[in-house]
Amino acid sequence: MHEIQNNLKKTVTRLAGDIGPRGYTQLDSLNKAADYIKSELSGYGYTAYEQPYEIEGKTYKNIFAELKGGRRPEKVLVVGAHYDTVTTTPGADDNASGIAGMLELARLLKASSPALTIQFVAFTLEEPPFFRSRSMGSHVYAKNLKQAGRDVEGMICLEMIGYFTDRPGSQLYPLPFLRWLYPKEGNFITLVGNLHSREFLDRIKSAFKKGTDLPVESFAGPAVVIGVDFSDHRSFWKFGYEAVMVTDTAFFRNPQYHGIGDTPEILDYERMAKVVSGLKAAIEELSR
To answer: Residue 1: its pLDDT value, please?
Structure first.
């Protein structure tokens, strides 16, 4: 577990500390982040690929690697996170934490022999002004899967997995009645899906619990509930795929959301490591 914590902290520090803000106008920083992700994946023994595309005369790129399945290689499980930020924040939690988790999962699973193919993807342009648009890297990636006729088992989106607090009353919710159904302290991780993805969500939650003692909550509902579709899983929903967001609930918990204070020092790497352990167990179960 200590090694996982160190690796998570290394990636968050590199992205949010050394490179810093990675907004859509900050192409140099985005490219440095992409190069780092490629280097890490290559160091784990993967072939890392770029998926470039052009928006408003500028080239952006998704980075991905693939762990080929044995018995059912045509079926794909996507594990992704975005590496861009809003232009004013270092983005430690949002979303260097998600990228760190995705990279660590790629490392931990490299020696496994999954039945289906696992794709590890770092998306660009999740943040405004391209959020909820066809210019999102995840939309480009999901569209490509659809056009290629790929059989997608589902998508797991790592969106802010590093901020935890035991302070009473620290956890807020988009709907008032939810405070009576869920914890009042922000010391758990949440799995979020739409109604179409409910079964996929339940499978992930059940297996997640076998891999960690970190508390996990879940919610499946329509996108009209604030926050339910606030990341790259939304793009996969648009193409009819099942997808689940793994999140520390962002602005419902983290006071530094999209702020200059979203730095590596505010994250809880011990509990982040437990998120990774739970997701590893879930991915192994899903990819059998």
So the answer is: 83
